[in-house]
Amino acid sequence: MKNLVLAIGLFLSLLMGNVSFSQTKRVAAAAGREEYIEVEKNVKLHVTDLGEGQPVVLIHGWPLSDEMYEYQYQYLGRKGFRVIGITLRGFGKSDKPYGRYDFDVFSDDIKVVLDQLKIKNAVMGGFSMGGAVVLHYITKYDAAHVSKLALFGAAAPSWRKREGAPYGISENDANGLIAKTMTDREDLIAGFGSAFPAKEGNISKNVEKWLESINLQASPYAITESIKALSNIDLRPELSKISIPVAIFHGVQDKLCPFEFAEELKKGIKNSHIVRFENSGHALFVEEAEKFNTALEKFARS
Fold first, then answer.
1. Is position 46 annotated as part of the catalytic site?
2. Of 275, 180, 191, 264, which Cα lies nearest the Cα of 228?
3. How far apart are CA 257 and CA 280, in angstroms?
4. Catalytic residue among 46, 136, 145, 282
5. Are 61 and 26 contacting, i.e. CB atoms less than 8 angstroms apart?
6. Is 243 a catalytic residue?
7. pLDDT by residue (tens digit) across 169-211?
């Protein structure tokens, strides 16, 4: 009996030792990066953070989320870049609090994320409304964390027509769009599928559905308040304050943000150049994805 007890004890000891050994040998599979970052009390933003190397920070358009950059993550993350997509509050998987949704708030949130991630010398890019957001961020925070800026079909310098800014949407049409966000949001978003590309067939029906599904994740309140903010902001006075290199990616056939926007941005930003997407409308990041990705890579490495 004594020998049996000793044998059982030895077996259990070996068994527990093996369990302990196996647990201590586990190496974490994840890189330890946060998917959600708190920017103020009770407000967290969703962040996609992939790859290693030179940081590229991407800000989405209205009413999308950082998910729109799926094919940029896939490409740049395998080309020696750390690609960081930030979803603005009110959109996608980020928190959707009641409160302000304007360009100061968006810029403040981005600053907190980049501070927390300790980002240095990033290439920052912004699409559509996100283009206006990153322009405001650069001037408000004197290009903190950022060494280069890329604008993709930017809704800037003035999305709405006003004195001295003859391009873009009229005040009446802007007000009509704002009203539709409060009364006809689903149909409004569904209509973007045909307005995004230069022509039917430039993107597949499945890509249209994918973009629509992202758009529908946004808070109805947030999309109304943020498009109001876009209608009210005039970034023309801020352009001369930008001194870092700027690449202006724009679809020549863009029906939502006319190509003249790119030309106005080029005039106002001294160290800038235009990358023309001859076969694209507003969806240049998927209409000419290969050119978009390689041109962004080239700009980031230059």
1. no
2. 180
3. 12
4. 282
5. no
6. no
7. 999 999 999 999 999 999 999 988 888 999 988 999 999 999 9
Strand arrangement, sheet containing 122-127: 36-40, 43-51, 81-86, 54-59, 122-127, 146-152, 246-251, 272-277
Return the biggest CA–CA distance within the chain.
99
Tokens found for residue 67? 């998910």
Q: What is the per-residue pLDDT across 127-154, written as a single tens digit (0 to 9) for each?
A: 999 999 999 999 999 999 999 999 999 9
Distance (Å, whole) CA 205 – CA 202: 10
Query: Annotated catalytic residue: which of 94, 219, 254, 280?
Result: 254
* C-alpha to C-alpha distances, 18 to 13, 25, 28, 199, nearest whole angstrom: 9, 11, 19, 63
DSSP 8-class letter at 197: S
Is 254 an annotated catalytic residue?
A: yes
Give the residue from 51, 47, 46, 45 showing the smallest Cα distance to 74.
51
- CA dist., res. 137 & res. 126, Å (int): 11
